[in-house]
Amino acid sequence: MKKEKLHIAIYQQNIVWEDPEANYRKVAESFENFDFGAQNPDILVVPETFSTGFGDHMALQAEEPQGATFDFALAMARRYDALFAGTWTVKENGVVYNRLHLVRPDGSFDYYDKAHTFRMSSEASQLERGVRRVTAEWRGWRIKPAVCYDLRFPVWLRNSADWDYDILLVCANWPGSRYEAWRTLLKARAIENLSYAVGCNRVGRDSTGIDYAGCSAIVDYKGLPMSEIPPSLDAAKPYDRIITAELSAEKLATFRQHWPFNLDFDKYEHC
């Protein structure tokens, strides 16, 4: 049965470069110190490669499928009785993936391997591309996981006419030089798929000198931000913070019924 009100909390994190233990502490303390009020979150979201940062050593930092970062994610899921969503690199059968994990409090999980590795960086040469489209379920809601560069590919993220998903969830390390593209594409994917879109981006400056403006947001099915962080354009003062929103199953269903654009979706096979 779908929970009527689903509460999302996303952490726009200034990642400590290649220091998993420091990032575990940072994430845990940030959520612990945030006032959620009377309602704990149903989903916790952190950025892409939240434990290390996105760089040239991602393959060397890859863990076993259920290694230390998975243990941390599970501990967070149990602490808040929530789904924990984030990516880290995983080595499986000799191959390394940028893997988005959706970890539940009972230890079960779904995962999605980033399909569009970023060819303008070393990611594409270090890591294998995922080939599997994934939809996960949590408390009756259907969730489509995606990672950063995936956001540019609408066919890959296309909803089905009978609704593959209710929430597009994107974890990213999207550079600040292209922050307007990030904001625009997140809204576009929500509008065209009649779904909520949750975009959690990192912020700050990494050790290679790349700045990240954040602009994390939770967007409704009309493309309207429900909660968002403005661009963080001063790398010396990054907007490292948590935002939340309450998603309504009833409002989503009503909008879809009144505006059944899905009945006119182009007919094609998903990738």
List keywords for this structure.
6-stranded mixed beta sheet; single chain; 271 residues; alpha/beta
Could you characterize the architecture of this molecule?
It contains 5 helices and 14 strands. It has 271 residues and is an alpha/beta fold. It has a single domain, classed as Nitrilase/N-carbamoyl-D-aminoacid amidohydrolase. Strands 5-4-3-2-1-14 form a 6-stranded mixed sheet. It is globular, with a radius of gyration of 17 Å.
Biggest sheet character: 6 strands, mixed
Spell the H/E element sequence. EHEHEEEHEEEHEEEEEEH
- Describe the strand arrangement of the main beta sheet, using strand numbers: 5-4-3-2-1-14
CATH topology: Nitrilase/N-carbamoyl-D-aminoacid amidohydrolase
| Separate helix tally | 5
CATH C-level category: Alpha Beta
Count of discrete domains? 1
Superfamily (CATH H level) name: Carbon-nitrogen hydrolase
Point out poorly predicted stretches.
none
Helix content, binned percent: 10-25%
Structural class: alpha/beta
Distance between the termini: 30 Å
